[in-house]
TrEMBL record, chain B:
Compartmental location: Cell inner membrane
Record membrane topology: Multi-pass membrane protein
GO cellular component, one term: plasma membrane
All residue ranges annotated as the Tripartite ATP-independent periplasmic transporters DctQ component domain in the record: 37-166
Identification of the protein by name: TRAP transporter small permease protein
Similarity comment text for this entry: Belongs to the TRAP transporter small permease family.
InterPro entries: DctQ, TRAP_DctQ
Species per Swiss-Prot/TrEMBL record: Bacterioplanes sanyensis
Molecular function per GO: transmembrane transporter activity
Chief subcellular location: membrane
Function (record text): Part of the tripartite ATP-independent periplasmic (TRAP) transport system.
Transmembrane segments: 27-49, 61-79, 100-121, 141-161
UniProt KW keywords: Cell inner membrane, Cell membrane, Membrane, Transmembrane, Transmembrane helix, Transport
Quaternary structure, from the entry: The complex comprises the extracytoplasmic solute receptor protein and the two transmembrane proteins.
UniProtKB/TrEMBL annotation, chain C:
Similarity remark: Belongs to the TRAP transporter large permease family.
Compartments (UniProt record): Cell inner membrane
Main localization (coarse): membrane
Subunit-structure text: The complex comprises the extracytoplasmic solute receptor protein and the two transmembrane proteins.
Membrane topology: Multi-pass membrane protein
Keyword Transcription regulation: no
One Gene Ontology molecular-function label: transmembrane transporter activity
Transmembrane segments: 50-70, 136-160, 172-196, 217-235, 241-260, 272-293, 305-327, 334-353, 359-386, 398-422
Record's protein name: TRAP transporter large permease protein
Matching NCBIfam families: dctM (TIGR00786)
One Pfam family linked to the record: DctM
Keyword terms, alphabetized: Cell inner membrane, Cell membrane, Membrane, Transmembrane, Transmembrane helix, Transport
Amino acid sequence: DTWRYAHEEYEGDVQDVYAHKFKEYIERESDHTLQIYRFGELGESDDIMEQAQAGILQFVNQSPGFTGALIPEAQIFFIPYLMPTNMDTVVEFFRTSKAINERFPQLYAEKGLELLKMYPEGEMVVTADEPVTSPSDFAGKKIRVMTNPLLSSTYKAFGATPVPLPWGEVYGALQTNMIQGQENPIFWIESGGLYEVSPNLIFTGHGWFTTASMANKQFYDALPKQDQQMIQRASEYAFNETLKHIDGLADRSLKKIQAADSDVTVTHLSEAQIDVFKERAELVEKTFTEMTGSSGKELLMQFKSDLAATE
Amino acid sequence: MTSRQHYTSSLPGPLGWLDTTLSKVEALVLSASVLLMALNTCSNVVARFVFGEGLFVSGEINRILIILITFAGIGYAARHGRHIRMSAFYDLLPTTSRKVAMILIAVMTAAIMFFLSYLSVHYVVTTFERGRILPALNIPIWWIYIWVPVGFAITGIQYLLTASRNMQSKQDVFLSSCVTDSYDNDTPQP
Amino acid sequence: MALTLIVIMIVLLLLGFPMMIPLTAAALTGFYMMFDGIGQMDTFIQQVIAGIRPASLIAVPMFILAADIMTRGQSASRIIDMVMTYIGHLRGGLAISTATSCTLFGAVSGSTQATVVAVGSTLRPKLLKAGYSDPFSLALIINASDIAFLIPPSIGMIIYGVISETSIAELFLAGIGPGLLILALFSLYCLIYATINKVPTEEKSSWLERWQATKRAIWPLFFPVIVIGGIYGGVFSPTEAAAVCVFYALILEFLVFRSLSYRDLHEIAKTTGLVTAVVFILVGIGNGFSWIISFAQVPQAVLDAIGINDMGPTAVLATISIAFFIACMFVDPIVVILVLTPIFAPAVAATGLDPVHVGIIITLQVAIGSATPPFGCDIFTAIAVFKRPYWEVIRGTAPFIAMLLLASLTLIFFPQVMIFSYI
Ligand code: NA
Ligand code: NA
């Protein structure tokens, strides 16, 4: 059969790499073919999610952050300093966490989706008009965020002023100083040229951009056992290959940025500086539990115990 | 296009009253939504520039207003014969053939509008079942889609009325139930 | 499948159906063929709604509203009167004033349609009285409105910028040069036309009259200052500039000139809503149509067939120009930008073309296409506003389109025309 898979990024981005590895495995191990659609081809993030729920698409990749309107608990990935910054620990966490491998599949199943894999895309990096090392440095700075209450709560807690703005206006707004900063994984800062207009890169270590690949549950459940197992193996294969791809991706992107623009500064927060921000993250945890109730609280507890087990 | 004459329904009795009232409601929704959109967007600029903090709900409010304008507007446009059409060949036809063509066009357009209305009801129900919400306003998304089937249905009814008006009248060709198909022949427009 | 859809669309269009019907019928046929029935047609509705979702789209009603307030009040006529005192007396001066007014007005308005309405309603009667033929006047108004699309702010650039992730502020700056180039070409043609047809010249204004007209126009002349200053000063985004224009227009007409009443405002806002709805339903339905085309992988097949991946930069630019120009002869410019930009994105990236340059070319092509028969939207706007038959509106357009194509060739081969860009 021809199966259809849509994701939210452009050619060569992390989700595209994952999708193509997934395709490669499926087409090698079975007679099925996989048609991949990139960002915008079938609409935006919410659109492709609905199409996957309707069964028009067999597979969809959507970041939990965008899934918030559907599964509020998925916004847990926006809570700052919930995950380690060290890549190896993060990978270990994604492999072993009960929250990710047991609790989340249930949440997705309630919405008619078979969660295949959650995987990290990269560490979030803040760019700003000057280097920032403390909440007081953030004072008075307007930082662009996606329209999401948790993200806004995060930057309020960090001392900045969150400003919701569509992605298409970010570059222009940074250029005209309408906003003074934004956050994104480093490979987006590089490919979007954001460092040209916001040259101070700050590695705050507050979070990883996480994403998830899933199937329409009805479609998946109706498949023969061997196809289901093949899809699981394909997900595992794509996951491992994607980890290889992102390992060193941040360093490569950073090198490119530094080669392209000599005004760029790079700030890595020290342990002591991070602790100051970490203290403030508790406010965001409160916002999260207010938004998600007891189910969110449970998930948060599970997350924390999983993390303790990893570290 | 700047005429101030009010729409008067071609329907008799209470149905006519309902139709005329509906037309007034549509006009009010249109003008109020457009002005609210200006106000909302400017407030966001002021809030960000003067008070340093943008309004989180601003974008979602505009999204609601765009849907309101579009789907309240298509019915209103059908009422006033304002939907864009390519009339180069149609204009060449003699009056009787134009009348037949217009009846055919109106009936088919109405049928497609009713079908779209049916599909939209289906989509609104699906959205309701999936429970998606607007993150900043925290309201269910299906609420803001309700105008979609309503707008398509009203447009369909208007085209049916157009067809019936064309069947009743002897001479004129009607673009909508109250607008005849003609160009002004005296040149400069006031 | 592509062929079936195109045939359905063209037949229904020619029969005189409202434009949303051919697009809807073709799209629903596409769904029927892809999914063997009506089971998945919900997605069409989803995409119709998604089509009118982008936040930047609010610029459309806002610019139309601002232009309408200025036209029904005094701002537009004050600007036009001022332009007339300076160049009205030249040979072809009235026609040149029309083109110049479109340019000045373009610094406020983001859409060609709004410019057709604002400049056309004021100047067309004058052009006819002065002895210009109606087809020439209509063609001039429709095509000079293209300049307004290139002079910032521009809805086309906003939408292209959003989709292609190109800086809208950079696009805005880059559009000024080509806009002025077209103004120069048109002025030259007006001069030649007036000379050949012996159109009498107007009386020359005295410097006192000029000074007075300038003084009267001083408040409206602040529009561009506010728009450009606000955007580059970081006060508001290009989309928000449209709403700020509305606000300033309201202050002028209600508080300074006292030329409008609240009743007028309701009327103007209602008309704006009506025009917006008529355009947006096409934007939405066009999006639904493009979804099924994209799902069936039609554009990729077509582009592969013509071998876009083996083309050099100039050939890619030429292909883009032709595709956008032809598409805009049939479909609304906003829809065209929405549908075609992502399709060409890989080829643009692969050939290393400057996205700003590509954006300006696309904006120009879209503007030209919008005034080109058979279906250019400015033609429909002119038919709707001036209530003239289709044929009369398009009769005089050929020379203008030729000049515009000359301008686009210049832009393709000499990107330096974009004199105000950062590069
Ligand atoms: Na403009
Ligand atoms: Na035009």
